[in-house]
Predict the structure.
Amino acid sequence: MTKHRYNQTEREAIAACEAIKANGSGSFRIVWVKSRTWGHNPNVKYNGYTVGKASGCGYDKESAALADFLRFLAPDGNVYAASGAGFNSVVRKMDAAGWTLEKTYSGDTEDGYSITRK
């Protein structure tokens, strides 16, 4: 069996999810970064670190970036199935995993979120 090698963003996401699990809640934000090729791309930020991101076109990048980060909170990683399917899909997957995900604010270049253990 081969061991998975996590990249820097995944290592930061794992550490952030461990902190959220320990506290029972947390808040984070998506910063929308302009790309000449793909438009605005979401970078999920937690305590100043990038913990999830998405790029490309043809799917919902917000949900893909959230799933990229939050998959480490769900016990079986099932939130990844919601990747690219829309924000409400991620909310439902996190709800099934015992977490309440809410959007707390929305701006031109940044959106805020909170997550709380049920």
In short: DSSP finds three helices and five strands in the chain.
